[in-house]
From TrEMBL:
Domain of life assignment: Bacteria
Protein name, entry field: DUF1963 domain-containing protein
Gene3D superfamilies: YwqG-like
Residues forming coiled coils: none
Length: 307
């Protein structure tokens, strides 16, 4: 199974995760587990005077000629967040992010149809319901007004009671810091490092797994690093969806391909931005490193997990 080899810098051996592993795991297991840590860019609400690396909500800045993303047959997607690649410490991450430009994330959140249409990552027909747009640096952009949702008004052309307008989420500026991120204990790289036998993974000390959860109980907003799943590791979901619905979950190709995907970005439920994804869930975009390096954001895969 492919794995990501990471060299952690900036006194990585002194991070809280290293201390946690040394406290709760035997020395050899602690060294093996901390070798799987990856740097991630955590995005948090920017306070006054802090540098801004992105934002949740508001209105997107799009170039002329770039249409507001629409899921045909359903309606326009909601603008979730944007990230300024030049403001990210890309040199401290281990994914080939663009050095500059902006990433804009859109998702069909159900506000138009009261949640009738669900963006199912496993269904190829649903994939237009989540989108990533890369806007290169230097391209002129302008704030794009909210699109109108056109419903069937009938023959008289009058507005009907079912006609609704897309609403923007409150804008929340985000600042960034780099920190070590840990894989879920069922993550492909953990299975590779500690054995694929499920019984070997069920033997983690409870104190260790509890301390991991207590340190960061929610997914949070993040670019790169290990994703923080609400349920099971995202990589298996994405690999299965990419291989096709006809592939069985226990097909060895699913586990093999799961190691080929990295987190591009995740956005958590956020009260300041009035964002609630399912039942306190999170939105995730994953991508293969080669596609990321080639700026093929159209090949990014989306999933949502909630409690």
């Amino acid at each position: 199974m492919p794995c990501i080899i990471v060299v952690m810098t900036r006194n990585a051996s002194a991070t809280p995760l290293h201390d946690l592993a040394r406290t709760h795991l035997p020395a050899e297991a602690a060294a093996r587990w901390t070798g799987l840590l990856r740097p991630g860019a955590t995005l948090e609400k920017a306070e006054a005077g802090e540098p801004v690396a992105g934002r949740l909500g508001g209105l997107p800045l799009l170039p002329q000629g770039v249409e507001w993303p629409v899921w045909e047959g359903h309606g326009p997607l909601s603008f979730v967040a944007s990230v300024d690649c030049a403001a990210l410490p890309a040199g401290e991450l281990d994914i080939p992010l663009p050095a500059d430009g902006t990433l804009a994330f859109f998702y069909f959140d159900g506000q138009i149809d009261s949640g009738d249409a669900f963006v199912d990552f496993a269904d190829p027909e649903c994939r237009p319901g989540a989108r990533v747009i890369h806007i290169p640096a230097g391209v002129p952009v302008a704030e794009r007004p909210l699109p109108l949702y056109e419903c069937d008004h009938g023959e008289d052309g009058d507005d009907c009671e079912d006609c609704e307008q897309l609403e923007a989420y409150p804008e929340v500026p985000l600042t960034v810091r780099v920190e070590a991120t840990a894989p879920d204990i069922w993550h492909p790289v953990v299975r590779e490092a500690f054995g694929s036998d499920d019984s070997s993974l069920e033997g983690w000390p409870e104190e260790f797994t509890d301390a991991l959860y207590d340190r960061k109980p929610g997914p949070g907003h993040q670019v790169g690093g290990h994703a923080h799943p609400v349920q099971n590791p995202l990589e298996y979901e994405i690999a299965h969806a990419a291989l096709g619905q006809d592939v069985r979950w226990d097909d060895p190709r699913v586990a093999e391909d799961a190691g080929n995907w990295v987190l591009l970005a995740q956005f958590d439920t956020d009260g300041d931005a009035d964002m609630m994804w399912g039942d306190c869930g999170a939105l995730y975009w994953l991508i293969r490193p080669a596609d990321l390096a080639a700026l093929r954001f159209d090949r990014a895969m989306f999933t949502m997990q909630c409690c």
